[in-house]
Every structure is written in C-alpha cells, then in structure tokens.
Amino acid sequence: MNEDCIFCRIREGALPAHKVYEDESSLAFMDTSPVSEGHVLVITKDHYENIFEATPESLAAVSNTVAKIAKGIRVVFSPDGLTVAQLNGSAAGQTVFHYHTHLIPRRDGDPMDLHARGQAEPDKLAEIAAKISGALD
Ligand code: AMP
Ligand code: ZN
Description:
Blueprint: H1 6-12, E1 19-22, E2 26-30, E3 40-44, H2 56-77, E4 81-85, E5 100-106, H3 122-134
Helix pairs in contact: 2-3
Bound molecules: adenosine monophosphate and zinc ion.
C-alpha cells in the first residue's frame, strides 16, 4: 500500500470508486474523466508503478480482467471499436503511477484521445458500472 497513491486508496476503500469487477489480483472501476461513455480502468491490486515493476502474475490477472470487461463493454455499448491502452512514464502520458490499463469504447470517427478534461456525473458512472458489471460472464 502506497499512502500517496490514489489507486491504492481506491483499492483500500479509502477513496470512492464505481467498481465494475474484482478478483484476487485485479480491480476494474470507471474512469472519473471518461474519454467516452464506458471508459473503464483495470488496476493491479498490489502497487506497481508500471509494466517494468509489475510481476508476470499481476500482469496476467489484469490481462484476463481486461478481456472480461471488454466483452461486457461490447454487450452494453456495441461500440465500433475498443481501445486498450497502458501508459508507462510521464513521457508516455502516464499520470497515475500505479499500473493500470484503459478500456475506451470508440465510435467511428472519434478522435484517438486517451485523456479527457471534464469529470462525469457520479450517478451516470454508477449506472454504467452496474450495467457493465451485469453483463459480465
Ligand atoms: P494514466 O494517464 O494512464 O495514468 O491514466 C490515469 C487515469 O486515471 C486518467 O484517465 C484519470 O481520469 C483517471 N483517474 C484519476 N483519478 C481517478 C479516480 N479517483 N477515479 C477514477 N479514475 C481516476
Ligand atoms: Zn498504488
């Protein structure tokens, strides 16, 4: 646990999040500044800063959860495409230094943004989280 890390604090329940799914080693929740409706983050439960620190087991857990959530997003939103992105280091655009992967549903013609400015309405995020969660195998 890294006290200064917002994702560790979410994992501990010390900060709120709209959780979609969790298993022993990974946790999925809504991005509060979504690039598109249905933007989900999947994190390792343990604190690793990036892909270079994360263990093979934790990377595998995130990967399996990403595939599970991707199918749920497809059921709920039927997007034209789905970006799966993982950033390492500020030069790559990483802003939260706890290993995570983005799932961003895309419509044809959407800009290929990885970050958004505005925050989504919490009620809306709760509704989407419940929908995706309910669509998981
Ligand atoms: P990255 O730039 O890949 O490190 O992505 C960090 C992501 O975390 C951004 O898309 C932020 O919108 C998102 N984010 C930051 N704080 C929170 C939070 N408290 N709950 C959910 N998502 C967050
Ligand atoms: Zn952390």
